[in-house]
Amino acid sequence: MTAYDPTAHxxxxxxDVEFRKTPTRTLMARIYQPQGPGPFPALLDLHxxxxxxxxxxxxxxxxxxxxxxxxxxxxxxxxLAPEAPYPGSVQDANYAVRWLKAKAKEWNGDAxxxxxxxxxxxxxxxxxxxxxxxxxxxxxxxxxxxxxxxASIAYVIARSPISDPYTRFKQAEKMERVGMMNKTKKYxxxxxxxxxxxxxxxxxxxxxVSMPPMFILQGELDDNVIPPxxxxxxxxxxxxxxxxxxxxxEGCGHMWVADPGPQTDRAHEMIRAFVARQLHAAQAAA
Length: 286
Known about the structure:
The chain has one domain: Alpha/Beta hydrolase fold, catalytic domain (Rossmann fold, 3-Layer(aba) Sandwich), CATH 3.40.50.1820. The protein contains 9 helices and 8 strands. An 8-stranded mixed β-sheet has the order 1-2-4-3-5-6-7-8, with helices on both faces. It is globular and about 50 Å long. The mean pLDDT is 96.
Protein backbone atom coordinates (compact mmCIF):
# COMPACT_ATOMS: atom_id res chain seq x y z
CA MET A 1 0.00 0.00 0.00
CA THR A 2 1.19 3.53 -0.76
CA ALA A 3 3.25 5.14 1.99
CA TYR A 4 2.54 8.72 3.08
CA ASP A 5 4.75 10.97 5.23
CA PRO A 6 2.83 14.14 6.20
CA THR A 7 6.10 15.99 6.88
CA ALA A 8 7.53 15.36 3.40
CA HIS A 9 7.88 18.06 0.75
CA UNK A 10 7.76 17.66 -3.02
CA UNK A 11 7.75 19.94 -5.99
CA UNK A 12 4.41 19.72 -7.76
CA UNK A 13 3.29 19.86 -11.36
CA UNK A 14 -0.09 21.49 -12.03
CA UNK A 15 -2.21 21.10 -15.14
CA ASP A 16 -5.84 21.08 -16.26
CA VAL A 17 -7.53 18.22 -18.09
CA GLU A 18 -11.04 17.59 -19.36
CA PHE A 19 -13.17 15.89 -16.74
CA ARG A 20 -16.73 15.47 -18.02
CA LYS A 21 -18.64 16.80 -21.01
CA THR A 22 -22.19 17.98 -20.37
CA PRO A 23 -24.76 19.05 -22.99
CA THR A 24 -23.80 22.69 -22.39
CA ARG A 25 -20.09 22.74 -21.44
CA THR A 26 -16.98 20.79 -20.50
CA LEU A 27 -16.18 20.38 -16.84
CA MET A 28 -12.45 20.52 -16.09
CA ALA A 29 -10.18 19.01 -13.47
CA ARG A 30 -6.99 20.52 -12.07
CA ILE A 31 -4.28 17.96 -11.30
CA TYR A 32 -1.71 18.65 -8.56
CA GLN A 33 0.92 15.96 -9.04
CA PRO A 34 3.91 15.55 -6.70
CA GLN A 35 7.18 15.06 -8.55
CA GLY A 36 8.72 11.94 -7.09
CA PRO A 37 8.81 8.16 -7.36
CA GLY A 38 5.36 7.62 -5.84
CA PRO A 39 2.80 6.29 -6.27
CA PHE A 40 1.05 8.94 -4.18
CA PRO A 41 -2.28 8.57 -2.33
CA ALA A 42 -5.13 10.29 -4.17
CA LEU A 43 -7.45 12.98 -2.83
CA LEU A 44 -10.47 14.48 -4.64
CA ASP A 45 -11.30 18.13 -3.89
CA LEU A 46 -14.90 19.41 -4.20
CA HIS A 47 -15.36 23.18 -4.25
CA UNK A 48 -17.86 25.29 -2.33
CA UNK A 49 -19.78 28.33 -3.55
CA UNK A 50 -23.30 27.94 -2.14
CA UNK A 51 -24.08 25.39 -4.91
CA UNK A 52 -24.28 28.37 -7.35
CA UNK A 53 -20.72 29.69 -7.70
CA UNK A 54 -17.00 28.87 -7.95
CA UNK A 55 -15.10 26.07 -9.66
CA UNK A 56 -12.03 23.85 -9.31
CA UNK A 57 -9.82 26.87 -8.50
CA UNK A 58 -11.65 27.73 -5.26
CA UNK A 59 -9.21 25.90 -2.98
CA UNK A 60 -5.83 26.39 -4.63
CA UNK A 61 -3.69 27.15 -1.52
CA UNK A 62 -4.88 24.06 0.34
CA UNK A 63 -4.64 21.85 -2.75
CA UNK A 64 -1.07 23.00 -3.32
CA UNK A 65 -0.12 22.45 0.32
CA UNK A 66 -1.53 18.93 0.47
CA UNK A 67 -0.05 17.94 -2.89
CA UNK A 68 3.37 19.19 -1.80
CA UNK A 69 3.22 16.79 1.15
CA UNK A 70 2.95 13.84 -1.23
CA UNK A 71 -0.68 13.49 -2.28
CA UNK A 72 -2.11 13.44 -5.78
CA UNK A 73 -4.79 16.10 -5.40
CA UNK A 74 -7.45 16.49 -8.10
CA UNK A 75 -9.96 19.37 -7.95
CA UNK A 76 -12.96 19.18 -10.27
CA UNK A 77 -15.60 21.55 -11.59
CA UNK A 78 -19.17 20.81 -10.55
CA UNK A 79 -22.32 21.93 -12.31
CA LEU A 80 -24.05 24.82 -10.61
CA ALA A 81 -27.60 25.89 -9.87
CA PRO A 82 -29.87 26.93 -11.42
CA GLU A 83 -28.49 24.96 -14.42
CA ALA A 84 -28.21 21.83 -12.29
CA PRO A 85 -30.28 21.72 -9.09
CA TYR A 86 -29.92 18.91 -6.56
CA PRO A 87 -28.66 16.25 -7.10
CA GLY A 88 -26.75 17.52 -10.17
CA SER A 89 -23.51 18.47 -8.41
CA VAL A 90 -23.66 15.29 -6.32
CA GLN A 91 -23.89 13.28 -9.55
CA ASP A 92 -20.81 15.09 -10.90
CA ALA A 93 -18.92 14.36 -7.68
CA ASN A 94 -19.95 10.70 -7.68
CA TYR A 95 -18.70 10.44 -11.27
CA ALA A 96 -15.48 12.17 -10.20
CA VAL A 97 -14.82 9.53 -7.54
CA ARG A 98 -15.11 6.74 -10.09
CA TRP A 99 -13.20 8.71 -12.74
CA LEU A 100 -10.28 9.42 -10.40
CA LYS A 101 -10.14 5.79 -9.31
CA ALA A 102 -9.80 4.84 -12.97
CA LYS A 103 -7.34 7.62 -13.89
CA ALA A 104 -5.07 8.05 -10.85
CA LYS A 105 -2.30 5.79 -12.17
CA GLU A 106 -1.83 8.12 -15.15
CA TRP A 107 -0.64 10.81 -12.70
CA ASN A 108 1.39 8.47 -10.49
CA GLY A 109 -1.44 8.21 -7.98
CA ASP A 110 -2.92 5.37 -5.98
CA ALA A 111 -6.69 5.59 -5.46
CA UNK A 112 -6.91 2.38 -3.43
CA UNK A 113 -7.80 4.48 -0.38
CA UNK A 114 -9.36 7.48 -2.07
CA UNK A 115 -10.24 10.40 0.17
CA UNK A 116 -12.53 13.36 -0.51
CA UNK A 117 -11.97 16.94 0.62
CA UNK A 118 -15.00 19.24 0.50
CA UNK A 119 -15.36 22.90 1.45
CA UNK A 120 -18.66 24.47 2.53
CA UNK A 121 -21.24 23.18 0.01
CA UNK A 122 -18.51 20.88 -1.29
CA UNK A 123 -18.46 19.46 2.23
CA UNK A 124 -22.21 18.86 2.01
CA UNK A 125 -21.67 16.95 -1.23
CA UNK A 126 -18.75 15.01 0.29
CA UNK A 127 -20.91 13.89 3.21
CA UNK A 128 -23.63 12.69 0.83
CA UNK A 129 -21.05 10.79 -1.24
CA UNK A 130 -19.67 9.16 1.87
CA UNK A 131 -23.02 8.02 3.19
CA UNK A 132 -24.68 7.06 -0.11
CA UNK A 133 -21.97 5.68 -2.44
CA UNK A 134 -24.37 3.30 -4.16
CA UNK A 135 -27.34 5.63 -4.54
CA UNK A 136 -28.79 5.16 -8.02
CA UNK A 137 -29.60 8.87 -8.35
CA UNK A 138 -26.02 9.85 -7.59
CA UNK A 139 -24.59 7.17 -9.92
CA UNK A 140 -26.60 8.55 -12.83
CA UNK A 141 -23.60 9.21 -15.14
CA UNK A 142 -21.98 6.00 -16.40
CA UNK A 143 -18.20 5.79 -16.71
CA UNK A 144 -17.76 3.92 -19.98
CA UNK A 145 -14.06 3.16 -19.57
CA UNK A 146 -14.52 1.66 -16.09
CA UNK A 147 -18.13 0.53 -15.68
CA UNK A 148 -17.42 -1.68 -12.67
CA UNK A 149 -15.65 0.92 -10.53
CA UNK A 150 -17.73 1.88 -7.49
CA ALA A 151 -18.08 5.27 -5.78
CA SER A 152 -17.10 4.27 -2.25
CA ILE A 153 -14.56 6.47 -0.50
CA ALA A 154 -12.14 5.79 2.36
CA TYR A 155 -12.44 9.04 4.34
CA VAL A 156 -13.81 12.59 4.23
CA ILE A 157 -12.27 15.93 5.16
CA ALA A 158 -14.90 18.67 5.36
CA ARG A 159 -14.11 22.35 5.96
CA SER A 160 -17.20 24.28 7.16
CA PRO A 161 -19.54 21.73 5.54
CA ILE A 162 -23.27 22.40 5.14
CA SER A 163 -24.07 19.35 7.26
CA ASP A 164 -27.67 20.53 7.73
CA PRO A 165 -28.81 22.63 4.74
CA TYR A 166 -32.22 23.37 6.24
CA THR A 167 -30.83 24.69 9.53
CA ARG A 168 -28.30 26.73 7.57
CA PHE A 169 -31.19 28.18 5.51
CA LYS A 170 -32.98 29.17 8.73
CA GLN A 171 -29.75 30.83 9.89
CA ALA A 172 -29.63 32.81 6.63
CA GLU A 173 -33.22 33.90 7.28
CA LYS A 174 -32.27 35.01 10.79
CA MET A 175 -29.31 37.02 9.42
CA GLU A 176 -31.49 38.43 6.59
CA ARG A 177 -29.08 37.10 3.94
CA VAL A 178 -31.44 37.14 0.99
CA GLY A 179 -28.74 36.15 -1.50
CA MET A 180 -27.87 33.00 0.42
CA MET A 181 -31.54 32.12 0.82
CA ASN A 182 -32.12 32.52 -2.93
CA LYS A 183 -29.10 30.38 -3.80
CA THR A 184 -30.39 27.62 -1.54
CA LYS A 185 -33.82 27.77 -3.17
CA LYS A 186 -32.26 27.59 -6.65
CA TYR A 187 -30.40 24.42 -5.72
CA UNK A 188 -33.05 22.49 -3.82
CA UNK A 189 -35.75 22.10 -6.46
CA UNK A 190 -38.32 20.98 -5.48
CA UNK A 191 -37.88 22.59 -2.08
CA UNK A 192 -38.67 19.34 -0.24
CA UNK A 193 -35.38 17.91 -1.50
CA UNK A 194 -33.60 20.04 1.14
CA UNK A 195 -34.75 17.39 3.60
CA UNK A 196 -34.06 14.36 1.39
CA UNK A 197 -30.50 15.53 0.64
CA UNK A 198 -29.74 16.60 4.19
CA UNK A 199 -26.87 14.69 5.90
CA UNK A 200 -28.09 15.49 9.41
CA UNK A 201 -31.64 14.42 8.67
CA UNK A 202 -30.49 11.30 6.83
CA UNK A 203 -28.88 10.16 10.08
CA UNK A 204 -31.86 11.20 12.17
CA UNK A 205 -34.17 9.17 9.92
CA UNK A 206 -32.04 6.13 10.62
CA UNK A 207 -31.28 5.44 6.97
CA UNK A 208 -28.82 2.65 6.29
CA VAL A 209 -25.66 4.47 5.21
CA SER A 210 -21.94 3.93 4.73
CA MET A 211 -19.84 5.61 7.41
CA PRO A 212 -16.22 6.24 6.45
CA PRO A 213 -14.15 8.27 8.94
CA MET A 214 -14.70 12.05 8.78
CA PHE A 215 -12.73 15.08 9.90
CA ILE A 216 -14.69 18.35 10.15
CA LEU A 217 -12.90 21.70 10.47
CA GLN A 218 -15.13 24.52 11.71
CA GLY A 219 -14.56 28.22 12.41
CA GLU A 220 -15.58 29.37 15.89
CA LEU A 221 -16.93 32.70 14.60
CA ASP A 222 -18.71 31.31 11.54
CA ASP A 223 -22.19 32.85 11.41
CA ASN A 224 -22.94 31.17 8.07
CA VAL A 225 -22.65 27.56 9.23
CA ILE A 226 -22.76 28.00 12.99
CA PRO A 227 -20.68 25.65 15.17
CA PRO A 228 -23.71 23.97 16.80
CA UNK A 229 -24.64 22.53 13.38
CA UNK A 230 -21.30 20.71 13.18
CA UNK A 231 -21.30 19.66 16.83
CA UNK A 232 -24.74 18.10 16.41
CA UNK A 233 -23.79 16.37 13.16
CA UNK A 234 -20.53 14.97 14.56
CA UNK A 235 -22.33 13.69 17.65
CA UNK A 236 -25.12 12.10 15.55
CA UNK A 237 -22.57 10.48 13.21
CA UNK A 238 -20.71 8.97 16.16
CA UNK A 239 -23.91 7.70 17.77
CA UNK A 240 -24.82 6.02 14.47
CA UNK A 241 -21.52 4.13 14.61
CA UNK A 242 -19.18 6.33 12.59
CA UNK A 243 -15.86 7.98 13.43
CA UNK A 244 -16.01 11.79 13.25
CA UNK A 245 -13.29 14.15 14.42
CA UNK A 246 -14.34 17.79 14.87
CA UNK A 247 -11.97 20.71 15.39
CA UNK A 248 -13.28 24.22 16.08
CA UNK A 249 -10.74 26.90 15.13
CA GLU A 250 -10.73 29.79 17.57
CA GLY A 251 -11.24 33.28 16.14
CA CYS A 252 -12.03 31.97 12.62
CA GLY A 253 -14.99 32.54 10.33
CA HIS A 254 -16.37 30.56 7.41
CA MET A 255 -13.52 31.04 4.92
CA TRP A 256 -10.49 31.34 7.18
CA VAL A 257 -8.34 28.87 5.25
CA ALA A 258 -8.37 31.22 2.25
CA ASP A 259 -5.95 33.52 4.12
CA PRO A 260 -2.39 32.72 5.26
CA GLY A 261 -1.88 32.57 9.00
CA PRO A 262 -1.29 30.32 12.00
CA GLN A 263 -4.79 28.84 11.98
CA THR A 264 -4.59 28.03 8.27
CA ASP A 265 -1.20 26.42 8.84
CA ARG A 266 -2.70 24.40 11.69
CA ALA A 267 -5.59 23.29 9.48
CA HIS A 268 -3.17 22.06 6.83
CA GLU A 269 -1.11 20.22 9.43
CA MET A 270 -4.17 18.56 10.99
CA ILE A 271 -5.51 17.46 7.62
CA ARG A 272 -2.17 15.90 6.68
CA ALA A 273 -2.05 14.10 10.04
CA PHE A 274 -5.62 12.83 9.59
CA VAL A 275 -4.81 11.44 6.14
CA ALA A 276 -1.69 9.77 7.51
CA ARG A 277 -3.72 8.10 10.26
CA GLN A 278 -6.28 6.78 7.77
CA LEU A 279 -3.64 5.36 5.44
CA HIS A 280 -1.52 3.92 8.23
CA ALA A 281 -4.59 2.28 9.80
CA ALA A 282 -5.36 0.67 6.46
CA GLN A 283 -1.78 -0.60 6.22
CA ALA A 284 -1.96 -2.08 9.71
CA ALA A 285 -5.20 -3.85 8.88
CA ALA A 286 -3.92 -5.25 5.60
